[in-house]
Amino acid sequence: MRNVASVLHLDLDAFFAAVEQRDKPSLRGKPVVVGGVGGRGVVSTASYEARKYGVRSAMSTREARSRCPHAAFLSGRFHAYRTASEQVMAVLRATSPLVEPLSLDEAFVDLAAAGLPDLEVDTVRHVAERLRAQVAEVTGGLTASVGIGSSKFIAKVASDLDKPDGLVVVPPGGELDLLRPMHVSVIPGVGPATTERLRRAGIHTVADLEVISEDELVRMLGAAHGHGLHLLAHAEDDRPVVPERETKSVSVEGTYDTDLTDRRLMAALLTRQARRVAERLRASGLAGRTVTIKVRLHDFTTISRSSTIGSPTDAASTISRLAVALLQDLDTTGGVRLLGVGVSGLADWIQEDLFGTTEDDVEPEGDLDADLDAGAPSTAGAKATTHTWAPGMDVEHAEMGRGWVWGSGRGVVTVRFETAATGPGPVRSLKADDPALQPWRPESPDGSTVPDMHERHR
DNA sequence: TCTGGGGTCCTAGGACCC
DNA sequence: TCTGGGGTCCTAGGACCC
């Protein structure tokens, strides 16, 4: 917690529904529900007109229809939402370099990094009013609710206090007075399960929580959660605003309108999902070692199975083969309502098989593999070297100029390049004799660090 | 015909290594 | 023959968030 109100939280009001109303005037002033429109869909966002009828996020669309039959039910246009979101984030970033998006419609802004003359309440309030006006201007009239406080927690609570289209600044020193009467569920991380456990212990408000010892909370909720809750109950929150967060996993899942019973169909659906995961991994320059499938049975019990391979992959064929194999071990009698595939254990580099022995559905637009094959050193600037290792042999990294080659196993080498054209990133589809090809430089300042991966092969 | 999709973080147990 | 801990990795499940 800071001694000034310098953390801002901005939340776009009923965002998806508001974009629809903006783009289709006939929907303005009317109830609009955006979400899954299929038999098993749920509400993503309800306009304020629809909320009057009790329609809420995460409610099943069926229930929303029964509560508000005359609403417009829309499945959503994510491209439009992303565009609007990017416009808003650009406005925020023009105010401070420290902007942390939480989703398409929400972000924290660190005003301490905004270069303001001071961080007095009046000053930050003016900044917020200006931001809200700019948001409306660049998005064609979308409104946002803003909260400002001495921490993320307080800013987020504050932005909720005067929705929609509101602005609340919590002056430093006023945090506990604000929180004490509130229900424990205002604390981030306190969901239905935690609320129920606390309720059984007679704890309902933040004030109730405040007088419980940390030890007691840790006993009740576990180390991490108990400790975190104890801090937040005392309004102690030093979490920084972090602009970039590393992706940890990529997944695709789907719920089907009728339960699946045909295993061949399930395998085909997993394969299609694996392809989409692979596409997204490649688009982000990522690859991962752990493939996980998720299976939700007819009775809503959810099962996951994972398997981890020796080196990261972004190949649809590898991901789908592992996914389908994981499914084989599962009993799905009774039917499956959801299937999903995910990849985690991500690295931002890729292992190539130089000898072309894998079934890979990657279409190499250039033929980096072939050029590196058989020890053929490639090219200008890159000077790639090929090594062949015997099974079980220790593999060490080999420095090549300012770049690196890694490898493990027989005949497999991992190469990471960067090009003048694309900047850092995997460039597997580039021809090896492309003059733009430069060896990738390790990111550590002294150039001596190699990824952890290496340790595993020794 | 209750209960989405994309994520993050935590826990607990077992394997394995030193 | 018995008896350790500590650390890391992997797996499965659960809570939570938007």
From TrEMBL:
A matching Pfam family: IMS
Xref: SUPFAM superfamilies: DNA/RNA polymerases, Lesion bypass DNA polymerase (Y-family), little finger domain
Intracellular or extracellular location(s): Cytoplasm
EC numbers, comma separated: 2.7.7.7
Subunit description: Monomer.
Keywords for this protein: Cytoplasm, DNA damage, DNA repair, DNA replication, DNA-binding, DNA-directed DNA polymerase, Magnesium, Metal-binding, Mutator protein, Nucleotidyltransferase, Transferase
Domain UmuC: 7-191
Chief location bin: cytoplasm
Enzyme type, top EC level: transferase
GO cellular component: cytosol
Biological processes, Gene Ontology terms: DNA repair; DNA-templated DNA replication; error-prone translesion synthesis; SOS response
Catalyzed reactions per annotation: DNA(n) + a 2'-deoxyribonucleoside 5'-triphosphate = DNA(n+1) + diphosphate
Record: residues binding Mg(2+): 11, 105
Stored InterPro entries: DNA/RNA_pol_sf, DNA_pol_Y-fam_lit_finger_sf, DNA_pol_Y-fam_little_finger, DNA_polymerase-Y, DNApol_IV, IMS_HHH_1, Rev_trsase/Diguanyl_cyclase, UmuC
Residues annotated as site: Substrate discrimination: 16
Cofactor: Mg(2+)
Cofactor-binding details, from the entry: Binds 2 magnesium ions per subunit.
Free-text function comment from the UniProt entry: Poorly processive, error-prone DNA polymerase involved in untargeted mutagenesis. Copies undamaged DNA at stalled replication forks, which arise in vivo from mismatched or misaligned primer ends. These misaligned primers can be extended by PolIV. Exhibits no 3'-5' exonuclease (proofreading) activity. May be involved in translesional synthesis, in conjunction with the beta clamp from PolIII.
Protein family: Belongs to the DNA polymerase type-Y family.
Name used for this protein in its record: DNA polymerase IV
